[in-house]
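Margin note: ligand = zinc ion.
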Amino acid sequence: MNLKFLGAAGEVGRSGVLLNTGNEKMLFDYGIKIISQAEGPLQAPKIPLKVKLDLDAMLLSHAHLDHSGFVPNLYNRGYRGPTYSTATTFDLARILLNDSIKLANLRNQEKYFFKEDLKTMEKNEYRITYGQQFYVGKSSIGIYDAGHIPGSVSFHVNTGKKSVVYSGDIKTRDTELLRGLEPIRENTDILIMESTYGEREHPDREIQEKQLTEKVRETLEMNGTAMVPCFAVGRAQEVLLILEKYGLDKYPIYLDGMAVDATKIIMKYPELIRQPKKLDKIYKNIEKVYNNRQRNDAAKRPCIIVTTSGMLNGGPIAHYLEKLYDKKNCSLTLTGFQVPGSAGHTLLETGNYVTEENNFKIKCRVDFIDLSAHSGRSELFDYVKMIDPKKVFVIHGDSCDKFASELKEQGYDAHAPQSGEVCEI
Ligand SMILES: [Zn+2]
Ligand SMILES: [Zn+2]
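Resulting structure:
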C-alpha cells in the first residue's frame, strides 16, 4: 500500500494525493496553484503531477480551486470513473471551474479542460453527505465535516488493513458562518494533513471582527466607501454576517462578483451553516451588483462593498480601486491570507497596486485583518492529538518540513513529502 504526492508538497496549492491500497486506487483532490500577475504577466496556473487514469475514485474535499481545479482534466483525458463529494462542493466548484475556463480564454493560456469536460464530470458526480459511509471496492469511506467552507469534508478510509485520514483544509473552531470540524474518533493509522498555519497562530477572532467593523464604521463616518475584498466562497458570507452582528447592515451594502452566486448556492444548503435565517435576511436586504454601471453608482456614495477577489488578483475590486485609490476617506480592508506574489501581498509590502492592467500607488487607507478559514498552529497540533495516528504526512503549507520536525519532537512519526514522492504505508 502506498501514497503518491502529486502536489501541495511544501506549498499551498495544486493538492493531489494518490492512495493505492493494492486493491483500489483513489485520488484525494486534484487542484491547481494560481500564480499572481504580480509575478509576471500572463502566468498560467501551476498544475499537479500527472496521474494514470486507472483510478477507482476521485475524492474531492472541497470546492476551492487548489483542490478542485484540475479534476475536469481527468475527464478531458478520458477518465469516466466517479468523483465523490458533497452537493454543495459540486455546485460551488462548478462556478469556480467555469470561471477558470473563462480566465484561461481571456489570458490566452493553455487549456487543460473545456466546458464539455465539466459536463462529463457532472455525469460522474456522486453526491455524499456528512455522517454517511460509502465503498470504493473493498475500502469503506467515512465523511466528516471539515469546518473550512460550506460542503468541505475530511475523508476517513478503511481499507480493511489500514485506516487513512485525508484532512483536506480544516477549521477547528466555529465561525459566524460555520460550525468547526467534526472530530474523527475512529481508529486511524495514517493522517495526511494540511499545515497552512503551521507556523502561525490566529489573532483573537473577536478582536479581528471588531477591527473590521471599526474600520468600516470610521470610513462611513467620513462619507467614504469601505471596500472589503473577499474570497467568494465562505469569506464573503462570513463578512456579511459580521457586518450584521455589529449593526452595520443599516448602511448600504453591495455584494459583487462571484460572491453573489456563491452566496445563492450556500443558501441552498441551510443545514450546513450556523445562521441560515440571518444570512437569508441580510442577502435579501443588500444590493447585488452585476455590471459596471452599478459599480460606478456604488463608488460614488458612502457604502460597504463586499467583492472578489480576495487577493486583489482580479474581479470587480480592480474596478473599484481604479475609481477610489486616491480618496483618503475611503478604505480597503483585506480579510484573509495574502499569498506571496499576489497583488494583495504586493500592496501590503509596497503600497502599490500592481496587476497586468494596473500599477498605481494606493492612497486610501489599507488594512489587513485575519478571518482565516484554516486552523491555527496550536489547533493543528490538537488535531493530530485528537486523531492520534501512527504516522503523519504534512502537506499544504509553506513550512511543512518544520511542522513535521516539530511533530517528531512531540513523539509522532511525521514526514513532509516531496512532490512526486511515493511513500509505502
Ligand atoms: Zn480551501
Ligand atoms: Zn487549500
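The domain at 2-200+373-424 is CATH 3.60.15.10 (Metallo-beta-lactamase; Chain A).
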